[in-house]
Each structure stands twice: as C-alpha cells, then as structure tokens.
Amino acid sequence: MLEEVRITGLGVIDEAVLELSPGFNVVTGETGAGKTMVVSGLGLLFGGRADPARVRPGADRAVVEGRLRVDPDGAIARQVNDSGGDLDDDGGTLLLVRSVSAEGRSRATAGGRSVPVSLLTYLAEDLVAVHGQADQQQLLRAGRQREALDRFSGPEFAELLARYQRSYHRHAQVRAQLDELTTSAANRAREADDLRRGLADIERVEPAEGEDVELIAEDERLSNADALHAAATTAHEALVGDPASGSYETADVTSLLASARTALESAAQHDPQLAALAGRVTEAAYLLADVAADLASYVQTVEADPARLAAVQERRAELTRLIRAYGATGGGAPAGDLGGVLAWAKTAGTRLAELDADDDTIGALTAQEAELAAEVAGLAQELTAARTHTAAQFAEQVTAELTALAMPHATILVAVTPAQGFGPHGADEVEIRLSAHPGAPALPLHKGASGGELSRIMLAIEVVFAGADPVPTFVFDEVDAGVGGKAAVEIGRRLARLARLAQVIVVTHLPQVAAFADTHLVVEKSSDGSVVHSGISRLDDAGRVRELSRMLAGLEDSEHGRAHASELLAAAAAERALASVVPRAAATASLA
User: Fold this and answer.
1) Quick check: pTM over 0.70?
2) DSSP codes, 419-443
3) pLDDT single digits (tens) 260-271
C-alpha cells in the first residue's frame, strides 16, 4: 500500500507530496493544475516510460519517490533483498525512487540500492494496477486475466488447479526422463557394445593384480640367465673352490679364513683382544659358508629357458595392450598400471548393467507417461469446464455493472479458448472482450473501448473481482469521463466499495465521485506570471465542502454550491456508515 508519494520537477509540478491513506483517496483540482501529472508520476515510479519532455522546464530532472507498506516476509521484500536493497528499520516500509533527467537518462532505486528499471516494472505487477487512458493496464494482460478469473472461481477451483499442476509437473519430469533415454538410444547401444567388447577382451586375458610387475622381473631374469649363472658360479668358486677341478693350488676364501682362524686361536689365550678378533673371523667364516650354500642353490635354478622367455614376453605384450587400451581410464588408477585395467573392468560392468536395465526403465516410464498424460488431460478438461462456467457468471455481473456505469448497451464476454498444448495452468487461453453495442463484434478490451470507457470497464471488472486480483493499490484516471448525474454517483459508490478491499486512488473532476472518498487531496496551482507551480494539499471537512462547491458550481464561495456539497458529503458518509466488510461473494452480489 502506498503511504506517501513525493513528486519533483514533473510537468507543471514543482514539488508536491501525496499523503495517502488506506481506503478511498481522491485527487481533484482545476483544469491544468497537474492532476494528470499525479498519475504520470505513479506510472513513472512503477517502471513506466521515462519521457524527458515531462521534465519541468528549468529543472535538471524529474524525481518521484514512493514510500510503501509491504509484507516483510512477502515476495516483494524477498525480491528487493535479492537485489541488494533493504526495507526500512520498521521492517515493513519500502522506498522506491525513479528519476529521469532532461537529457533522458533514467535511474531507479529500491530499498536504497540502485536497481534496473525493469525491477520496478516487475514489482508493480504485485503492488499496483493503474487504470488510465495512457497507462499500461495490468488486467489487460492475458495472463493476469486468467489468474484473476481463477481466483474469482474460489477455493474449490484452486484445489483443482493445484491437483492439475502436481500432475502436470510430474508428467513433465517423466516425459523428460523418457525423452533423455529414448533420444540417446543409439548412443547407449554403442556404449554398451564398446563395454561388452572391452570386458570380453579383459576376460579372455584374465589378468591378475600385480602380474605385470612379476613378469617384468621374470623377463629380466630369463633374458640374462647365462650372465647370472656365470656370476654366481664364479662367486661360489671364489668362496669354496671348485672340487671338480681336482686342483688345490688355488686358494679359496673359505680355506684362507680357516687358516686365519687357526692362527689366531693358537695365540688367543695370551690376549683378549686377539681372542675377540678370532671370534669375528669365525663368524665371517660361518656367514660366507651360508652365502656359498645359497649361491650353489641359485646356480642350480638359473638356467636358460628360451621357451619360457618367449611365453613371458608374449604375456607381457598382451598385458601391455590391455593397459594401453583400458589402464589410463581405470577409475583413477595410474596410467600404465594393470590395476587400472581391473578398475575399468569393474566400472564397466556396473555401467553395462545400468544400460541393460534402461530397456526395462523405458518400458516402465512409457506406461507411467501415458497414465500421467491421460490424468493431465482429464484434469485440464475439468479446469476448462470450471473456467467456462465461472467466465459466464463473471461476464454477466460485469455487464450489469456497466449498465449502472452509463454503458447500458455494452456487453462483456469472457472467451475461454484452447491454448497450444498443455501448460502449467491448463489448456486454456482467457481473454475478456467487449461488445460496445448490440450487433458489434466482441473485441479485446484495448481494442473495443475508448480511454474513458476502458477505465469504467476496469472499475466494473475490479469491483466484480472484488479482491481476486491481489494488488493492494488501484489507480483510476478518467474513470468518470463522459458521465454525470446518477452514473457519477454509481461510480463513486462502487469505488468506495472497492476501497473496502484495497487502497483506491482516483483522479476525478466529478463531485459525486469525490464525495465518497475517505481522503481528499487537491492539486492547487499559483502563477508568478510565467511559471505555474502546483502543490497538493490534504483537505479537512471545511476544505472538502469548498472544493466540492467549486466542482459543482464553479464558485467555491457559492452558498448554493456549499449547500449542495454538504448534501453530497452527508449522503456519501451515510452510505459508507451503512456499509460493512462482507465476504467477497456477498459484496459482489450486492453490487448487481
């Protein structure tokens, strides 16, 4: 809800402040005083086109500041917070600012933070509905008309719509899964074939963990068998000699150690130090005897085996091929490692099982998709029937309202037509149409009505909706164009009833409308010879009588005009006193 709007440098307005209240706010003033600039300022504040021609001559820029009361936990507050702005310290006040320079540069802020102008337009959809000849009408949007008609349909329809939306979104999810599986069938088949070939290749070779490392060692040993045998034999003979030679002339290490030990032991009793050295020589003799024995065993095992060497090298070549093909992608195992091949085989087996199961999944999803599609179609048909029924009731009530608003020959129709396929709200397009007189074609509202007629139609629609369109503030300009007398009283009465459900701001020149207001603001002008300065004042009871007298007789000091103004105010006050807040359906019925 708007609490205050400050306008600076816009058109004929030098600086003016609108102090707005809940309920019915009316703005009046002499012709040329700047009433239209009030509506233009509100349009600018909520993202309207920035026209530098509207900047007051001599001013650098036009600025409109608005203070609004919003739900601190609602969607508006969240959107402002997401954009970097904040509500005021009281937690429920939002400041919006829009400016346009004389050169055409436009700026916007929300909650103290600079934001794109598009954000103001987005916020406006849930904050205000401006109905005037030059303004973009929120309710003229097809989506808004459908939303409002759905709310008008009541809680049972809301429950039906919620059921449809749950089925629709579930169907969309299943359809997406099914499309993903079926459109990639060829790719999945190729992937499965590749996995099967790889697994068969690995299964045929049957590699074992660490086998490649062992084969490398065996290959090295077999490839150098002669050299290894000769080295071990030479070392063995150096340690213990070669008894097969029959020669005892060449000294071996074991014999020399035996001589050294004998020599030392013969004199060891004379010196403990020498005895210790003798013990160490004895230990060395035992150690070398063990080494000699091991060398003798090793010599027996090392033999050239060309057949085995060929088999080892062939096996290594096969494992190397597997490593090159699969080892580098083996679930994080290092490239060139047989462990990578085994890891790939494990992952591939799991993935192949998934791919093989996709055929069963496709079958199940196909059946589920068909079931959900039928459910969505059935619920959409129920939505269409409910909308069509409600649309007829709504059209009848709005047509009755237009008769009371000096449009007795106009007829409202609500067309519920098939949309292109199913959407999140059903399979319907909703459009409100106007037949201006009997025999005239039913046209969309923006094509079938003039500016003044459109404002009255919007008033009739908003009254019948009676809160179905959830914006907290309605602005009407030219709602009384071309009417007077009884029709003007009816317009005032209906605006007052609408104001029981939302804040209403009306720019009018009719005293019959202004008399019903809870808050009366007047745009005043004064001239200093060349420049007109306009300001806005909030009227007390005496000021209202004076202003209504001016609007009635053209002379605010006319005794007859004052009497008539007082009579209008008394009649409007009496009707407001009798009125009470009632449920929407009852309120709508009482307007017929």
Assistant:
1) no
2) EEEEETTEEEEEEEEEE-STT---E
3) 888 888 888 888
